Amino acid sequence: MTTYVALLYSVVLPLGRRLAMAELRAMAQGLGLHDPRTIGATGNLTFESDESSIGELETNLEAAFDARFGKPIAIIVRNADAWRRLLRANPFRAEATADPARVAVRVMRSPIPRGGANALKPYISDERIAVAGGDLWIHVPGDPARSRLLSAIGAGRLQGVGTLRNTNTLRRIGDAVTSARSSPADRK
User: Fold this and answer.
1) C-alpha pair distances (Å), 63 with each of 112, 180, 188
2) Which residue in 50, 123, 134, 177 has the most C-beta neighbors within 10 A?
3) Average pLDDT over residues 92-102
4) What DSSP line would sit under 118-185, residue for residue?
């Protein structure tokens, strides 16, 4: 059994209703996923499964979400070892320790291609960005709510499916998978 992390792009449902995390856990259980746990209220799920294909897990979760809640959304899945590698790849560790709300990562379904982050340059003021492990890391020294860069990412200027999480959320998810056992499937 392998431990996985699933990140939902959005928890806003039709008619402005917000997804309850109990509903997300019930959906995961309905798919036969074991021990589904949510972290926070922003669509972070951990679970265990014998399924080793990340693509199949993403497809099944997305189809189940659309069928149950009437909204297609992107769901990105990583196994526990890949999640640990993502945490270790943080190029802004000192900044994340000093102020976790000012460092975030755009977790990508597929790695950002070489030079792919160049489309964001017109939106950068005092922010710093770095691609590490195929994901986009961002340090926002000013007020994140005023960042043009964060808005530009949300508008799809960074090609590919991705979702943004700040360091506080990353750590909480990391804590949830820390005790997860590693298997050969985790190394795929």
Assistant:
1) 25, 26, 24
2) 177
3) 95
4) GGGGGG-SS-EEEEETTEEEEE--S-GGG-HHHHHHHTT-S-S-EEEEEHHHHHHHHHHHHTSPP-GG
Alpha-carbon distance 78 to 57, whole Å?
10
Nearest to 111, CA basis, from 161, 55, 60: 161
At 36-63, the pLDDT tens digits run: 999 988 899 999 999 779 999 999 999 9
Say what the pTM is. Answer: 0.89
Q: Looking at residue 180, what is its pLDDT?
A: 57
DSSP string over 68-126: HHS----EEEEEHHHHHHHHHT-TTHHHHHH-GGGEEEEEESSPPPTTGGGGGGGG-SS
